[in-house]
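Lab notebook, bench 4. Continuing the backlog of folding jobs that were queued last week. Each job is logged with the same field layout so the records can be merged later without manual cleanup. Today's entry covers rRNA adenine N(6)-methyltransferase, a 342-residue chain. Filled in by technician R.K.

JOB TYPE: sequence-to-structure
TARGET: rRNA adenine N(6)-methyltransferase
LENGTH: 342
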Amino acid sequence: MLLSVRVATRPSLPLPEERRRASSSRRVVLRAVHTTSVDEGAASKEKKRRPTDDYHATVRSLNSRGRHVPKKSLGQHYMLNSSVNEELSSAADVKEGDVVLEIGPGTGSLTSTLLNSGATVVAVEKDPRMAALIKDRFGCTERLKLIQEDITKCHIVSHLGPLLQNQTPEGQKQKFAKVVANIPFNISTEVVKLLLPMGNTFSDVVLLLQDEAAARMVDASVETPEYRSINIFVNFYSDPEYKLKVGRTNFFPQPKFDAAIVKFELKQISEYPPVASPKSFFSMVNSAFFGKRKMLRKSLQHLCSPTEIESALDSVGLPITSRPCELTLDDFVRLHNNLVKL
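JOB STATUS: finished
OUTPUT FIELD FOLLOWS
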């Protein structure tokens, strides 16, 4: 069953005047507590059972160096609900000794959850303001390595390699890192294409994506309007799983769409479908879907003649009038392997 995680949040960050009123209200509450008979032991236990409210942690972080306004151009939406961060960490089964890549740590709410799990975190943050905030919040934490860089231009392996070697006992196979991140919706496809072919570095990639995009990536049903080349890509390199829907009210600022947690269990190279060259394979797949409603004998004619394409389709048991939306991953693999022989 898919659950929707929602919390009631304030529509905007408190301004200085509102913070002063809130502070005054807290003092009144504290005086009231001292005038009543309260079982402090029971209250302490109750406090421990309550989940951390990341709304206040986020507000404090954003106001710690002046009022930080999230940048729309960077797709910044900060998480307000700590239980969502716990779900992200749990989906990747993050535990003590793991090495985790976090993309866009923002205010550090997810970073805190990962560190509390005992993991070593490599956080890549593009925004220099937020990178400075992370440094202030976590100080000189040894298990946090902060990299101020664009993830799409970052040489990830060079940063993770030494950490993975240190975490791997001598004589044993090198450990794999994990990815756990609440990424900007506007770079989700780019990040997925960057990370999924890295099965030699990562075992699992857990991302918070726009809900509709998440559903499209996970569902590989042929002959549906959502079926496209990204489905072939995702299933070539991983086994995807839709984990949990997350309501838009859990973010600040609130986005226009709900989100979802998706787990990609990455395949090793030996587990990839048998193609001569992944590069040529995806070149063919992308060409096929560029003309999604066209027959393959027309959309692939820059690779082979229509007659040769028809012959290849027939030899793998597919109709010569086939369109890309009708082919599964296995169908594309067999077609590609037949065409490269020509």
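OBSERVATION: Residues 1-53 have pLDDT under 50 and may be disordered.
SIGNED: R.K.
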